[in-house]
Structures
1.
Amino acid sequence: MPHPSVNRRDLLPSSRRKFIRTVGAQVIAIPLGAIAYPTLLLAADKPKLDPAEPTATALGYTHTAPNPNKNCEDCQLFKSSGTAKWGRCAIFSGKLVNAKGWCYSWSA
């Protein structure tokens, strides 16, 4: 039971406002963080492709392209965040490929 001199109505609105303000700030901050740091989302916790993996071997993937004019960063299947040395490939999902790499699936 609250003390008789404390009005319960004075306590509830301020804590409710504080709660709404805090939750509102978090709801706005999460998407803004995702927009501000896309490179962290792109390469977060993804392993680099090992050329010895079965799929990489079957497609002749190498970290260094035999022809410097045909490498992963110029391929349509490659997704990078600008000047990154590693990026995603539509063929090797879940792995990062070297921007200077190459495989038989290279497409201009």
2.
Amino acid sequence: MTALQLNTKKLEIIEMLIGISDEKILAQISSLIRKSLENPSEHIPGLAYTHEERIAAVREGMEDIKAGRVGTDEEAFKPYEQWL
């Protein structure tokens, strides 16, 4: 990711944060950021981090597709409608 792309992503995140009025959500986000800064070697649980983890996540996704465990775009974006 280029420096410009990184800064653009940061601005997008700031815009999303501005739109959040739920104090509980803001506290969770703040805690996550604080923990990430305190332990930069750790990653966010559930997100592929190493090359091997990313490959495993892609393989798992492909298996889900083969098994019919898929949803629509609408279902995927539903929880985020308030920010989109």
3.
Amino acid sequence: MSYAIPNTRWTFGGNMQYRGDIFAEGLNWFIPDTPWRIEQDGVWLFGLMTKFQATEQTYVLLTVDNLFDEKYYSGISVPYHGQVYGDPRKATLSLRKSF
């Protein structure tokens, strides 16, 4: 969602995303008949953006993803080497020129 401020060159916006509960479970390979389970509760992720329209063909855009730097898994698999963390907080500044 974004909002362009009337009579200015500025646009501001934000987003939110919910990643639901995830889990993986199974039997331990190293210790027979020993079950394991890895789980994560759902997590909300938020982002912000601001855009400055420098000219009709040029703008500068700043985005911030995972605003509150939530630590979360983007994927879960077997213990010790199957968990994939989601991206940490990230800011991106870009300049775009149209021809």
4.
Amino acid sequence: MAMRIAERVVKITEALQIPYVFKGSYRKANRSRLDSFTGIGDLITRLSGTFDKARKQLYDGTGNVMRRVESLKGLGVTPKKQIKGLEE
């Protein structure tokens, strides 16, 4: 139903040359303001937590990947490839 409404409104606004953005959502906060994207904010917050957890596993703790790589280098192992961004 929302698609039918959107298609009809687009036809009318195009015929009248009126700029229009159709925004439909089950959450009122997402419908009431053009600059309100609470769903996207929630997703970014969750992804940020996942990224932080993965980064900690790379750099922190006793078995982190970076410590293991440095330990192998200390034993004389020469890596064939360098992973960009891990030197930070």
